[in-house]
Amino acid sequence: MNTSQLSNNDYFILKHKNINVADIIIKNGDITDVINIYEPEHLPYKYVDDKTKNITLLNSWVEHRGIPFSREDYDAIMEEFKVSSSKELTVLSYGLNLTDHYWLCEKNNEKKWEDVNFLDNNFSARIGKIMPELAEKYQDFINPDLSSNGRLKKYWIINNGKRELCKAGSGDLKQEPFNEFIASQIADRLSIDHVNYELKKHNNEIYCKCGCMIDKNVEFVNAFSVYLEGEKTGDKYNDYLNACSKMGINNAREEVDKMIVLDYLIRNTDRHVGNFGILRNSETLKWEKIAPVFDNGNSLWHNAQGVQFINSNSKSECRSFTGENEKNILLVGGTPWLDKNKLKGIDKIITDAFILNRNIEHERVDKIVSEFQKRVNNLDIVLERNRVIENRQTQSIERKGKSW
């Protein structure tokens, strides 16, 4: 869709693949009215029987589908496409992305999902300039770059038919791509299901790239939407696990605990309800599994302004359950899957990766390695404390049961 095609008042159908979900009115990127809802169970959020709330929820969905204002190249992208907000970009590119199977179709447009989705169809690489020689060069406007959330510059490419996401670093250190690679290596050793990240060099710059975790049948549903499926007791961790269990994912605790352990070890400060969740079949709506861990770049003291601030004992923000990784780790139950011996030699992998980053001094690398190892060593103490507490709670419950 060309920018000139976006009128002040447009009638769209929200679609889930080829399923007509709702008729909506969009004005300047904002959803102003919901005319009809045909398939409430296929909405991108849990249906509420309130028109005003549905409009609010759909606007929130559109807003979080686009490029955030914090993206480093936000202003340049807005200028390139002559729009005033990322929501307008979302509408112009039919709301398509490489995360789920939702899209926006003009009311009188006869296009089908097979005609427009990024899994089956080539897309323009006009924004994706990291590796243009690998990208398929087409002139169509729509592009998954326009609906890739997160503050870092990122670009989708087509490499030998595969969809791959490339992410750059930020600031002076540009440490995030290296962190993604290192986190991937740690997860691999600990048998934690994860999206695999590799380091690639182009024009003397190093970025990370990963494959697409969805396919034609399976899509990602973020934790925010998962929470909406369950009851809210105020205990975010157990509310999340209960919602997963209710929808048929029986190993949710172990898989979520694995994510918590990884986040604790690497000190991930950017785990939030948008970058963890579940995978589901988009046609049957069956929840298949906990989604693989991804988006680990804001970790390993990436924003520490000096080596003196790289400290294994310092608190680290985490917006998934409790607010801190150091509190989240206290939620973890049994860990029969955890074998720390598999992390032997990981210090060399961390060092070898960071040596490739000309922006990071050796002193910083050495400090990161030593403080990371301290967190690894401290993990046993924390988990043993958890086991003792959990055993006491179990015994207390059993005693109360006998007293009845």
Task: Provide a brief overview of the structure.
With 404 residues, the protein is of the alpha+beta class.
Description:
By secondary structure, the protein is α+β, with helices and mostly antiparallel strands. It folds into 2 domains: 1-110, no CATH class; 218-398, Phosphatidylinositol 3-kinase Catalytic Subunit, Chain A, Domain 5, CATH 1.10.1070. 33% of the residues lie in helices and 18% in strands. It is built from 11 helices and 13 strands. The strands form 4 sheets. A 4-stranded antiparallel sheet has the order 3-2-1-4. The protein has a 4-stranded antiparallel sheet with strand order 5-6-8-7, with helices on one face. A 3-stranded antiparallel sheet has the order 9-10-11. Strand 10 and strand 11 (287-290) form a beta hairpin. The radius of gyration is 22 Å and the shape is globular. The chain starts with 9 loop residues before the first strand and ends with a helix. Mean pLDDT is 88; it is low at 2-6 and 130-139.
Tags for this entry?
404 residues, alpha+beta, 2 domains, 11 helices
Q: CATH architecture of the largest domain, please?
A: Orthogonal Bundle
Strand percent estimate = 15-25%
Task: Give start-end ranges of low-pLDDT stretches.
Answer: 2-6, 130-139
How many angstroms does the end-to-end distance come to?
68 Å
**How many structurally independent domains?**
2
The overall average pLDDT, rounded, is: 88
- In the sheet with the most strands, the strands line up as 3-2-1-4
Going by helix content, strand content and strand pairing, the class is alpha+beta
Q: Helicity range of the residues?
A: 25-40%
Task: Say what the CATH topology of the largest domain is.
Answer: Phosphatidylinositol 3-kinase Catalytic Subunit, Chain A, Domain 5
Q: Quick one: biggest sheet?
A: 4 strands, antiparallel
Supply the number of helical segments. Answer: 11
Morphology call = globular
Order of helices and strands: EEEHHHEHEEHEEEHHHEEEEHHH
- Rg (C-alpha, Å): 22 Å
Number of strands: 13
CATH class of the largest domain equals: Mainly Alpha
